[in-house]
Amino acid sequence: MPDFDKIRSIGRRRRVDLIVAVILLLFVGAVGAYMVRFLLRTDPTKARIVGMAIPVQTVPAKVTELRDTVGSSGTVEQSATVVLKPRISSRVTKVPVDLGAIVKENDVLVEMDDRLFAAELESAKTRADHTSKQLRRYEVLEERGLGTAVDTEKMRTEDADARKAVIEAQIALANTRVLSPVEGVVLERVVNPGETPNADQKLFTLGTLNPVMMVAEVSEDRIGFVRIGMPAEVGTNAFPGVTFPGEVVKIQAEVSAKTRTFQVYIKIANQDLALKPGVSGYARLNNSRMALAVPSTALMNPVGDRATVFVTGGDQRAHLREIRRGMAAGGMTEILEGLTEGEVVVTVGQLELRDNDRVLANRSTPWSEK
Hints:
CATH class of the largest domain: Mainly Beta
Strand order of the largest sheet: 2-10-13-12-11-14
Shape: elongated
Mean pLDDT: 84
């Protein structure tokens, strides 16, 4: 006789197995459908095969601060050269400085025989004293009606000439000592004691050391990132760990044919005259400005002559647009022409795009808000 309980038990197990199999099949089907949908929404190649909109990520162009640092090596030089010539002719009695000496402003460089000039000053003072007294006498005679206004005026002219002669004699006496007009280094000395130089003869050439110049050699591909007035930081091998602030004051107009670099002159304050000509070092030029920019990943052929981006709008299509790029810094690229603030560009998926493709935009978090 059949065992109905056993038959019913087997039937129940088969129904359970069937239900489980159906559930598993539905689950696998749902997962498969989700994966297909996910792939079609994230894989541009597969989306194009089935004719769906191409999935992309986008961000808007935005005005933001771009920061960049241009690095270069260089050498410290004097900021200017000063050629000193005598203003009077007299025998040199003393030259207290030598080639390579560091001098400060108003240091004595040359002393000349001043005896004749001192005597001329005394003579001029005596004559000026005499004419001053004579002028007073003429004025008194004119007041009393015993002299004429013409005679008084002539005497007044002589007195003025005498006082002028005193000033000229004082200047000539002072010029018997040649003083340094700057803080600097003696680059050239062409005078010695016992010589009598002419008024147009060179005595010294000085190099100004406060301030000094760092002449930095900047690669030609960075020429667009350097401008007059931009701040700089200079480090030197002579003073490890010490940073000297500076400012770009001159940019060489020509690029060297040998090194493919151009020279940038950085002015550095040097009150203690610690920096000397010839000291080598490294300059960091800090560039910062507000500019319209997009992530650099949005640019197609960014190193070509004509960079392009894909722009999306209300028609849900991608339009290829040519732009003119500028400074690139921190993963962003400045847009000089071709975009306006707020226009949306494709940053992911653009390599699979063609002009006028339908797109499914999944806008990323704006890089300016991260």
